[in-house]
Description:
Elements: E1 7-11, H1 15-27, E2 33-37, H2 40-47, E3 63-66, H3 75-84, E4 93-97, H4 102-110, E5 115-118, H5 123-140
Parallel strand pairs: 1-2, 1-3, 3-4, 4-5
Helix pairs in contact: 1-5, 2-3
Amino acid sequence: MNVNLKKILLVEDNPNDAELTLEALADKNLANEIIWLKDGQEALDFLYCTDAWEGREKINPVLILLDIKMPRVDGLQVLKRVKEDPKLRTIPVVILTSSREESDLIEGYSSGANAFVVKPVNFAEFMHSVSSLGVFWAMLNEVPPTVI
């Protein structure tokens, strides 16, 4: 994969959590571009090159950081669509959520999540957790080539 094309997709409706996540990822220079989308429908539009993303270069992100509780289309619905699609299912999806509900954890893994991380309340823990996730999934993890 061309390193110059690495993108991380952050799907998060909370602006404060998104800003902290962006800061933690940028601190490690993990991708050329981190794309912040505010709900599940925007994520699907990006992944399928529809609506505002029609005509974008069809390169899959190296990682999707996905919140669960979002407006319009929730994160678990996005996860299911991604993992059911042969062109998208190899993208690592990390659920990054404040939900501590066991049912969300079970459904997340049952639907194909690669990891499930509960957002720490402590700022320093949050920054460390996100940067560690990014280092592993965007830099160390090898992803297969995009399926055409």
